[in-house]
């Protein structure tokens, strides 16, 4: 049976807008972060402008969206919200939309209890009474979402990913790459541009494990573990043709503190004898080398890494500090103090001498760096990110930026009609693209007036304030972290594989 051009059926009745009523001044429970407590779907959404005809597939994102009032609303942190997946399906210039909770085992515990049972891992807190057999820690399934192995896989750094039906967004269960991983992997994977294989890693205490999963069989075909000595909060990495690239920084995740109801994300400069170091793992030989940069700072996310002219080049964003100072865990920090604005940086490792250097790029504060993923491991010219210039009380991001590394020029646009709080921009190449930037940037923005979200589609090569299209969503998608695009070939195959599953 041929697939319908649109994969979301019309809803019988429109749901009322449902917002949580948990009075608190906590920024992460208000404004664009505020929870949206009902699953929703809609068909043939209102579009201002025109969705490009060759933009056919789905944008999958996962929002951070607490289902129940946190046990301590004042300590709740953005990183701890439950994952709600959002699929925006585009075809023939039309858009359809669906959101659904990622139903993890730990969420089922809270649904049965009718309230939050688990406490937070960022600022600490005392959990409720866990029923017998309940998972000891919560899998909030809120970091990233993307198609692999014909499933929509949703990731969380502290537990196994979950597999979802890519059409209905129904949660099927945890996903372990056919028994290839045991406990967890992080939410940041890269796709090998030559083979399509998935390249990713797990960080458990001081041990980092690199994985490669075959795109055809989804089996793990390469892995290697090594000990970096300190429990770095290792959330993202970069890959070049030869290396997997990791940074050892003072930003650390301390499970022992979480177990004592203390803040688990800490800033510990004393734990690093030589300051920040780059750790390279050779993807073929598994040889691990260390390269000293010095200083005390951390990475947020990476654009890419590549080798050129005898150097390894790594592009990412750098933050001056991240988390609660390990010697001041009892003093709560404001959100901008806990996570100050980050800045684009370029690091280089001389592959002959091993010497590492760094330089600031752009000068525009921002986060959520992205590239055209076809450039993974190869030289890229353009980077895209959201700006975080404003230090506003209610939002994190306030514009969309494109940096040209050759001209060393950053273009920034703000949202039309006051739209703000843009999400990570996802680059989608135009059909038969002829250049690296020949494509679209897809990002979700918050409309303060309607308190709903909009999908903005910008021309990546010609960034303008007025986008090519504004797709009006029927709900607000609480401000989250990451997502990805699935083209219609990949999406249709995955949907066909799931049809009939019930
Ligand atoms: Fe991330």
UniProtKB/TrEMBL annotation:
Cofactor(s) essential for the protein: Fe(2+)
InterPro entries cross-referenced by the UniProt entry: Carotenoid_Oase
Residues that, per the record, bind Fe cation: 188, 235, 301, 482
Cofactor binding comment, as recorded: Binds 1 Fe(2+) ion per subunit.
Keywords: Dioxygenase, Iron, Metal-binding, Oxidoreductase
GO BP terms in the entry: carotene catabolic process
UniProt GO MF annotations: carotenoid dioxygenase activity; metal ion binding
EC number annotated for this UniProt entry: 1.13.11.-
Keyword Nucleus (UniProt): no
Family recorded in the similarity comment: Belongs to the carotenoid oxygenase family.
Protein name as catalogued: Dioxygenase
């Amino acid at each position: 049976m041929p697939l319908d051009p649109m994969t979301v059926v019309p809803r019988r009745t429109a749901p009322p807008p449902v917002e949580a009523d948990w009075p608190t001044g906590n920024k992460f429970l208000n404004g664009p972060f505020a929870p949206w407590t009902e699953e929703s779907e809609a068909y043939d959404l209102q579009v201002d402008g025109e969705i490009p005809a060759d933009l056919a597939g789905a944008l999958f994102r996962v929002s951070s969206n607490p289902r129940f009032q946190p046990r301590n609303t004042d300590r709740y942190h953005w990183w701890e919200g439950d994952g709600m997946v959002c699929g925006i399906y585009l075809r023939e210039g039309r858009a359809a939309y669906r959101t659904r909770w990622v139903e993890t085992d730990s969420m089922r515990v809270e649904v049965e209890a009718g309230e939050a049972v688990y406490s937070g891992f960022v600022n600490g807190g005392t959990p409720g009474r866990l029923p017998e057999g309940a998972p000891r820690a919560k899998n909030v399934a809120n970091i990233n979402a993307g198609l692999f192995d014909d499933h929509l896989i949703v990731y969380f750094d502290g537990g196994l990913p979950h597999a979802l039906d890519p059409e209905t967004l129904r949660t099927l269960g945890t996903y372990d790459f056919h028994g290839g991983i045991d406990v967890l992997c992080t939410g940041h994977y890269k796709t090998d541009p030559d083979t399509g294989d998935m390249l990713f890693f797990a960080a458990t205490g001081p041990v980092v494990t690199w994985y490669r999963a075959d795109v055809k069989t989804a089996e793990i075909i390469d892995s290697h573990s090594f000990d970096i000595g300190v429990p770095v909060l290792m959330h993202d990495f970069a890959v070049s043709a030869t290396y997997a690239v990791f940074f050892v920084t003072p930003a650390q995740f301390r499970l022992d503190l979480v177990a004592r109801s203390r803040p688990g994300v800490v800033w510990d400069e004393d734990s690093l004898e030589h300051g920040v170091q780059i750790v390279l793992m050779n993807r073929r030989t598994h040889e691990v080398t260390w390269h000293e940069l010095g200083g005390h700072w951390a990475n947020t996310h990476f654009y890419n890494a590549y080798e050129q002219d005898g150097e390894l080049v790594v592009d990412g964003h750098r933050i001056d500090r991240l988390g609660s100072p390990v010697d001041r865990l009892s003093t709560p920090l404001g959100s901008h103090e806990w996570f100050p604005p980050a800045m684009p940086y370029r690091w280089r490792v001389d592959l002959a001498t091993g010497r590492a250097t760094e330089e600031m790029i752009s000068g525009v504060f921002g986060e959520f760096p992205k590239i055209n993923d076809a450039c993974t491991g190869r030289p890229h010219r353009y980077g895209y990110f959201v700006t975080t210039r404003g230090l506003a009380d209610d939002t994190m991001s306030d514009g969309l930026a494109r940096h040209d590394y050759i001209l060393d020029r950053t273009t920034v646009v703000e949202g039309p009609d006051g739209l703000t709080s843009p999400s990570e921009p996802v680059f989608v190449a135009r059909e038969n693209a002829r250049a690296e930037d020949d494509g679209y940037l897809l990002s979700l923005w918050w409309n303060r007036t309607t308190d709903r979200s909009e999908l903005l589609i910008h021309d990546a090569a010609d960034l303008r304030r007025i986008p090519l299209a504004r797709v009006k969503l029927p709900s607000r998608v609480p401000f989250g972290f990451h997502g990805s695009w699935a083209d219609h070939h990949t999406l249709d195959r995955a949907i066909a594989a799931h049809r009939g599953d019930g």
